[in-house]
Every structure is written in structure tokens, then in C-alpha cells.
Amino acid sequence: MYIDDRVSYAQVNISMKKWLSFVIGLVVSIVIFVLLIGSDLSFIQQELADGRYIYLIPASALFIIGIWTRAVRWRLLLNRQISVTHSFHIINVGYFLSGILPLRLGDVARAWLTTRLEKPISGFTSLSTIVIERLLDLLTVLAMLGLTLVLLDVPGEVSSAGALVGAGAIVGAVVLAMFAYRPVYAFRLLDFTERLIPPLKKLNLKPITANFIEGLRPMSQPRVAATVVLWTAISWAFSIGAGFVFLFVIFEDPTLSATLAYIVLASFSVALPAVPGNLGPFEGAVVGGLWIGGLISSAGSPQNAPAVAFAAILHATTLGLYIILGIIGLYFEQASISQIAAGSREINKPLEAVASD
């Protein structure tokens, strides 16, 4: 009886946390939209009416090619145990579900889909490689942030900080390579950190570190590591190219610095609470990036109307592409959302058990 009561309490606790997260996200999204749009929609409507939508075609093509390059990278991280075609479709399903559901559940869905392949791949192995993907992308975004600060007309101290951030990203990449080549260093660092901060021992981080190291295993081979880094650079080059071309829909003279600024801020915006689809924080980040990049004179309405219109077009287009490609991916992977939801819950049970403690 006690066990049943405890399980019920844990389930209620998790459910309440999810609802609280949704409510907070809804409030954040509404507040950002009110701040961006103000009380007069006419300026934004005019910008939308004047948009040069023909540029969506080449921008979308670059966007899709960028996803294909990420599929190639994930295949390498999975030690070539998956075909590029399966990798591409599974990634698209993950992006689709992350775009319409909260808590980045698309990542767990990707892990479950790999367990259904002709040669199944462990869900935990897939999740660990997805963590490595995220780290590589984070380091790339930090490098882009450093480059953006160097390119922008800012005080010398800020430019120096940008160079320092870029250098930090390179150091981070070197540390990852070191952990891949000598996993024992990661455990030594964990032991040192736990001695320095004793409460960390209660989190039982060693199994998590072990899974992290498992994901790094392909990176222990210099040739594979170099190829993964190369494909990371290629994928982000296509993302930047797509982002630059997208700007022509609204702006006549886009700049590289503005492109980098809005992509960097949009990448960080996913950390903010929001409704599914990241509506609100994404638009706010894009507007802020274009203001920092000098394409608009103010982040407030009505001067921000071109940026708000652009953010709405960009978000609608990318989300639409994720949905279309995700549905195609579901068809080719012969899976349904209900099947993925059930399978993902099985993989997610250990995480929920930790959250309920």
C-alpha cells in the first residue's frame, strides 16, 4: 500500500511539474509577444504584405541540405551503424516532435526509433550521441558568438570578450577530444568536482558520465573525430547560409553579422520556458539579434516591425518544413506518433524515476 501511494504521489508530482512548466511557458510567450507587437499590427501587416517570398525557395533548400549534413554527422557518431537515409528521417521526426511538443521529447523519440532498426541500436547509446551533438552545436554557437562580437562595431573590450569566447569554444572541443581519447580523465574530473562540492555525490553522476563517455567513443578515433567536426562545420555553414538568404524576404541589405547575431540568440532562446514550438522566445531572440546586428533601429514597436515580420515568416517556414519532413520521416520509418509516445515513455522511465525522488 505504501509503495502504491508513493508511486501515485510521484506521478502526481511529475504531472504538476509539467503543468506548471506549461503555464510558465504560456505566460512568457504572451508577455514577449505583447512587448514585440505592441498595440498596432498595421506596420507588421504591411511588412508581411511587401515580403519577397521567392527567397523562401533557395533558403528552404539550404535549410534541408543542412539537416542532411547533420544526418551524416549523426551516422558517424553512431559508428556507421545506421544508414544516412534512416538517420535523416529519424532526425526529421525528432525535430518535428520537438517543434510541436514540450521538453524536447523529439530527442527521446529519436533514441526509440533507433531501437527498431534492422540492426537495433541501444536507446541509451543513441541518447548519448545526441548529447554529444548538443555539445558540439553549443561549442559552435559559442564560436559564432565570439565571431559576431568581433564583427560588430562594439567597444574593444567587447570584441576582446568575443575573441575569448571563441577561444573558449576551441578549448571545449579539445577537452571533448581528450575525454574521448582518455575516458579516465572524465572520471577523475568528476571525482575532483565531487570532492570540491560534496552535495554532487547525491546526484549519482557516474552512470550519466559513463553514458556520456559511451557517446564519445567514436570521437576517440582521430580520423572520425576530425570528420565529425568537419560535418558540424558544414552543417552550420548551411544553416548560416539559409539564415542569410531568409533575410532577403524582408531586408534588402542583409549582413553576416546580423545573420550570426539572430542565429546565436535564437539558438539560446530554447532555454527559455515557452509554449510548444518555442513561440515567443524565438521571435524575441530573432528581433534582438537583428537589432544588435544593426538591421533595425530599435527592438521596440513600431521600429521593429520588419524584424517581427521576418521572425514570424522564419518561424512559420522552418516549423512548416519540420512538420512536412517529420511526417515523411514517420512514413518511411513506418511509425506513428502514438507508437513513438509509448516507446519513448519506456526509455524515459529512468529519467522520471530520478525526477520523482
Would you mind describing this structure in some detail?
- The chain is mainly α and 357 residues long.
- The protein has one domain (2-356).
- Helix content is 77%, strand content 0%.
- Helix 3 (56-77) packs across helix 4 (84-100).
- It is globular.
- 37% of the residues are buried.
- Mean pLDDT is 81; it is low at 1-14 and 353-357.
Gist of the model:
This protein is an all-alpha fold and 357 residues long. 77% of the residues lie in helices and 0% in strands.
Percent of residues in helices comes to over 70%
Number of domains: 1
The tally of helices reads 14
Question: What value does the Rg take, in angstroms?
Answer: 22 Å
Query: Which stretches are poorly predicted, pLDDT < 50 over at least 5 residues?
Result: 1-14, 353-357
**Silhouette:** globular
The overall strand count is 0
Sheet bearing the most strands, described?
none
Secondary structure category:
mainly alpha
Mean pLDDT level? 81
The proportion of residues in beta strands is under 5%
Tags for this entry?
mainly alpha; 14 helices; 77% helix; disordered C terminus
Topology:
Blueprint: H1 2-37, H2 42-49, H3 56-77, H4 84-100, H5 105-114, H6 123-151, H7 156-181, H8 183-196, H9 205-216, H10 222-247, H11 256-269, H12 281-292, H13 305-332, H14 337-356
Helix pairs in contact: 1-12, 1-14, 2-13, 3-4, 3-10, 4-5, 4-13, 5-6, 5-14, 6-7, 6-9, 6-11, 7-8, 8-9, 10-11, 11-12, 12-13
